[in-house]
Amino acid sequence: MFRKVIVLLLLITLTSAWWLQKPPRATKETLSQLDGEIRKLLKEDPERIGGFVRLAFHDCVGRGRCDGCIDHHNHDNKGLAVYTKVLNNLFTKFSNRITRADLYAFAAIVAANYASTSGPDAVFKMNRFKVGRRDCSRSGQEDDNAETFPGPNMQNVHELVNFFNKTFGLNLRETVALMGAHSLGRLRTKNSGFEGPWIAEVVQKNGANILDSRYYLEIVAVHWFLKVMPTNNKRHQWQREGPSMGVGNSVNASLNAQPDNILIHSDAALAFNFHLDENGAFKPGKECIMCSIVDPPPAGDLPCCDIKSAGRQLCIDYALNNTIWMHDFTDVFYKMIDNPDGKLTLPISVPVRPRPPPHRRLKHDSKNQDEKEAQDDVAFEKIKQKPV
Ligand code: HEM
Q: Where is the Plant heme peroxidase family profile domain (predicted)?
């Protein structure tokens, strides 16, 4: 009993010591340096754009909200380890200047900005990024945060709103707007059992990723047919192949080298209602195709799926106006990554003072210190050159 009390006291002391520690708060200069580093990573491998955005979403789900903790044992996080690895390498260089949770969130902001500047018009704004997210005590290690992620087989928009309202306090409009993040990146058989991009590579830049509202146009403006995955009969995804390829659950999804765009039920459910079993197949007698608003339904085919969805008009509005979507998306993305504990602040500017000439430096100036100051000088020069 006595030993138990000692252990408990020790645990309380350690936890409160961690909690009382003041996490580093990144300055504008640190963020400017990180912006450059993250852009280099994105240019090197554009797949990281979608990866960093997905990572921020997953980091912000769960008890601690955005907390720098990703549980790589959770199968819903499959595929994220490559992105935490690359950001953790960067983190080791900046660990005394930013928290891991801030870095994960900032990497997503840089990625969204990077991908939107190649889009048609509106640009995802970065200047609202706040700092001060706290890392969980096991940040950087695999963590057992018991997070629950949304499933891929949602049947209507209410199920989506339910999840996003509980998790981030979002309403219908915000939920529909946030899902447009799926204009980036792709699904991979080895991670989720689904395969293909939401927006095919042919319309993406550098093999991946323009952040715009085309995702909504895809949902409402073409015919979609449900296919079962040949690799996993518990996975059903929506594809473009029409009646000649068969419809309904019986027909395999095609896994061409460059498959057309695909959707999962949780995308399609923004504008349609379905009746599905636990594997994402139609319930008997409820088979349908997602009909386009533009073309008439294919003759002699299954009926069109139910379009009486509260999310449908929003999808059409966003499909027709990228600027409105980008405005809503930016707002809701910041709502997702801004922990609601009121501790976040906009970064302040702390320009580095010019270094004294070498003969006036103290003897104990270490090589590390020199390196750090040299980095700060570069950041300072960049800021000086920027127009105010
Ligand atoms: C109902 C909600 C959601 C479901 C069911 C869902 C499901 C998925 C699945 C199954 C994948 C594929 C993972 C893989 O195979 O590698 C994925 C990828 C992705 N998700 Fe979601 N997601 C949801 C919401 C979100 C939200 C809210 C965001 C961001 C704000 C997001 C951003 C992404 C991105 C960018 C990718 C592509 C990742 C890459 O290319 O590596 N998702 N999502």
A: 13-186
26 lines ligand 1 (CB under 6 A): no
Burial of 233 (0-12, 13-18, 19+ CB in 10 A): middle
User: Model-level pTM?
Assistant: 0.86
Residue nearest to atom 41 of ligand 1 (CA): 51
Closest residue by CA, ligand 1 atom 35: 50
DSSP per residue, 283-344: PTT---BB--SSSPPPTTSPPBPB---TTHHHHHHHHH-HHHHHHHHHHHHHHHHS-TTS--
For residue range 227-266, what is the model confidence (pLDDT) as tens digits? Answer: 898 888 899 999 986 544 434 444 455 544 345 789 999 9
The closest-lying atom of ligand 1 relative to the alpha carbon of residue 190 is 15
68, pLDDT greater than 50? yes
**pLDDT digit string, tens, across residues 147-191:** 889 999 999 999 999 999 999 999 999 999 999 999 999 999 999
Task: With beta carbons less than 8 A apart as the criterion, state whether 346 and 141 touch.
Answer: no
- Tell me which of 1.20.950.20, 1.10.520.10, 1.20.120.550, 1.10.287.130 is the CATH number of domain 23-149: 1.10.520.10
The fourth-level CATH superfamily of domain 150-243+258-329 is Peroxidase, domain 2 (1.10.420.10)
Please identify, by atom number, the ligand 1 atom nearest to the C-alpha of residue 79. 16
